[in-house]
Amino acid sequence: MKRRMGTLVLAALMILTAGCGQAPPEPEPEPDPVPVVEPEPVPEPEPEPEPEPEVPAGTNPLTGLPMEPEYEQNRPVAVMFNNLKAAQPQVGIAQADVIYEITAEGGITRMLGLYQTLEGVGTLGSIRSTRPYYLELALGHDALLVHAGGSPEAYTDIRSWGVDNMDGVNGGSDAKIFWRDAERRKTMNYEHTLVTSGEKILEYLA
Question: What does pTM read for this prediction?
């Protein structure tokens, strides 16, 4: 009887012990993280396109470059430039469409500048005398020749070839388009001071 009671007590204790040893409740799951929403990028404004430069519709017959159509049919003007070191800097040669440099004599050179238009061209100089081969270049372009004197042979050819020219030494009314530059006279010999201008030539031609 005693043994039976002991077994019952032992069984009761085991049941109680099992009840006290229950596993702890599982922890609440962590909430899902709130996703970070990146703001939509603001698009950069498109830059205004650069306006295309206006290209004249005409073509310069001396260079093949664009030019205003009203100048395409002009007769070119050929200007005789001094090229001695003592006469430099020349004035107006940067606006020329074509420059020819040829030996004149004694190893010195002179230049012939060709202009399809003289609009906007300022002072030109210094102006010097011409030679027959410069006449041939001018005639090859059907150009009007601007010069200050010439060799005897050049004057003969001017007359016999009928060269349209403006002469600052032996010209008539055309000589009025030339003048002696006061600033050049301060530092240069007299023969290096004769100049003209695009405006004066155009006034005379008109």
Answer: 0.75
